[in-house]
Amino acid sequence: xxxxxxxxxxxxxxxxxxxxxxxxxxxxxxxxxxxxxxxxxxxxxxxxxxxxxxxxxxxxxxxxxxxxxxxxxxxxxxxxxxxxxxxxxxxxxxxxxxxxxxxxxxxxxxxxxxxxxxxxxxxxxxxxxxxxxxxxxxxxxxxxxxxxxxxxxxxxxxxxxxxxxxxxxxxxxxxxxxxxxxxxxxxxxxxxxxxxxxxxxxxxxxxxxxxxxxxxxxxxxxxxxxxxxxxxxxxxxxxxxxxxxxxxxxxxxxxxx
Length: 257
What we know:
CATH architecture: Alpha-Beta Barrel
Structural class: alpha/beta
Order of helices and strands: EEEHEHHEHEHHEEEHEHEHEHH
CATH superfamily: Aldolase class I
């Protein structure tokens, strides 16, 4: 199982929100590139970037930071937030991003999802962000009547590479992942699922590991890494395979000191 650090971008800075609330953001670092390098130095195999400004505006707003990270780190980068048309997805992938994560359009324009899956095979994932089982859209500012499991089934049929499932009520709260919802989702589809939201300890990660045979292949960790509640190296040792041995010898944070 992959342990994937989250880097949430708001006005070019690395922040974390509490339950998706933009008014309750906390800045952790002014330099997201340095943060990305730090996580890779500690063994991250993939990075998860969220353009929070883009999610709220409906179009990417942190492309400069995203490109800088994608061109700096030697691991795959996946990006979500504001990717709601063909050009925004195409332009984001052209920056060196390995995977684009669609959210709102999965609910509002599934035909576009199908088109993108055909054009960019294995590079399109769908983020399903849920409140009480129902899918939230437009940067978590609206909640639809679509059930998370129903959307996941539809997206799997369209050919998306993976589902990233976030329980909004647990995101940024350090209250533990929603194991019940993840188990239900894993039972409904056969494509990989990446869990997100609520991880507060290595114990939480071990509870997710039990779902790996069902298709939960990764877990995104955000606030717990930034607060020190979870050490990335300890997490990788507990449940994943890091790539510390693959990092180039000249790859160091010293240049950012």
